[in-house]
Task: structure prediction
Amino acid sequence: MKLLKILAATTAIAALLAGPAFAQTRIALVVKSLGNGFFDAANKGAQEAAAELGDVEVIYTGPTAATAEAQIEVINSLIAQQVDAIAISANDPDALVPALQKAMERGIKVISWDSGVAPEGRQLHLNPSETNLIGETIIKLAADYLPEGGDVAILSAASTATNQNAWIDAAKAALPEKFANINLVAVVYGDDDSVKSTDEAKGLIASYPELKAIIAPTTVGVVAAAQVVTDQNLIGKINVTGLALPSEFKQFIDNGASQAVALWNPIDLGYSAVMLANDLVEGAEAAPGATLSMGRMGELTLDDTSSGAMAAPFTFDKSNIEEFSKIY
Result:
């Protein structure tokens, strides 16, 4: 009888060890909206990190519309599911704070990445790159092909998007000193919606007949603007640039609607976000000056706002767009 009891206990333990619930860390990768190629690529990196870690499940989720209200619903659902960590690219830095504070009160680790949350609503923030460098880069992408200067406009995502606003502020700050002959005539917002972004691009072209470049620091807006320039036979007259996924944007480098764009690797970004979230789950402390692991991407040292930058943006043009379009 004792032998049977021992065998039964051993079998039960083995079943628990073999089951998916054993030592399984669940990390939710929450994006601004589903159906966005940038975030789909980030999910590839997130799943890579989960496979590398071995005992992590990544839940890829987000709303269908890029609004704070829709993300709050997603967050509340994840709290109910009792996930271990939430890694979120925020549609609004402040509106999400109460829901994310609730998550942290329940023991859920919270980080923001790509587009940040106010410090009181997260434990750390992962910037894709350094804000001032991105701001300068997006202006330089236009200025490099305007030797005599000229009028440019910015087509952004949501007016509340933390990262977009920070990059635009940095771009404006770089103009007088480094790009004195570039005249920024307008900043408009397409809300990361292709239809609205298209309409805003058309409005810029109609409103500013001397416009030489449209700068869109958003993967949705840059494609929309390049398509408008293509459709209106303005190739060679208006250069579209900004931040773009190579796979989505190759056609516009090929047809001349754009001379060059830039982006950090979203695969690396999703990978790094999951590695950082897992580090917190395992007991790492997110405090100014702390260093956390990003796996193959190295280490992240947090500044006085518990934020850090992953890497510098990379430029894509005719010389390399073919190669990178096959990757992401």
About this structure: Confidence is low (pLDDT under 50) at residues 1-21. The domain at 131-263 is CATH 3.40.50.2300 (Rossmann fold). The radius of gyration is 22 Å.
